[in-house]
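Below is how a single chain appears once it has passed through the pipeline. First comes the sequence as given, then the structure the pipeline wrote out for it. We keep one example in the README because the format questions we get most often are answered faster by looking than by reading.
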Amino acid sequence: MPTKRLIAAAALAGALLVSLPLFAEPLAGNANVPAPVNVSSSLMGQMAVFAPAAALAQAAIPTQPGANAPAAKAAASGWGTEDDDLDADGMPNAGVAAVTALANDTSALRKTLIGLAMQLRDIRYVRGGHDPSTGFDCSGFVRYVFAHAVGLELPTNSASQFLAGLKVDRGDMQPGDLVFFRTAGRRGQGRISHVGIYIANGQFIHSPSRGKTVRVDSLDESYWAQRFAGAKRPGGLARS
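Resulting structure:
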């Protein structure tokens, strides 16, 4: 028994002596003694670090434009904000039978603008629409015509188009001026919510409301007369 105990003690001492360099501090000034290896640091340097805070912050970043549904894009750009069809009760189902011709002294710029607008007749109304391939709402129609006929970029809804234009008295309106209406809320009391392009002789072309198409109407018709809010002239037409 004593012999076995001595052998076990000797083995334990040997194990302690072998493992001692792993725990001992290096001797100062002894260049031959290697510094202890920091196993924990070495492994962490090779492993990807999981950072919960960074992951949460990344998850909180808003979705980039274009990655969401089309509705988000429409909201960001301002499309789809018109109220063209909220007060459509009483709106005529059809436009005027005959379209007034432009005067001979109408400028080429204004003729080009009205010419394109007339080519877009019968394209269906689509709320938020701003292209002939899909349809137009009122401001989308106006903005498309001005951009493609005369290269003028207008704001994206009727209220902002109203604020951007130069005021024009009704008796001084010319082809291409914009005519605005308050079709939301009580008659003539709501906000600016509809826009069209003046042609001549009290007629204007516009995209009216849901279920209808681009057409020509008369300012003298009672529905439009009661809701008429005024005329504005986009800056690009001021000198033409």
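The first strand starts at residue 130 and ends at 131.

See the next section for the split statistics.
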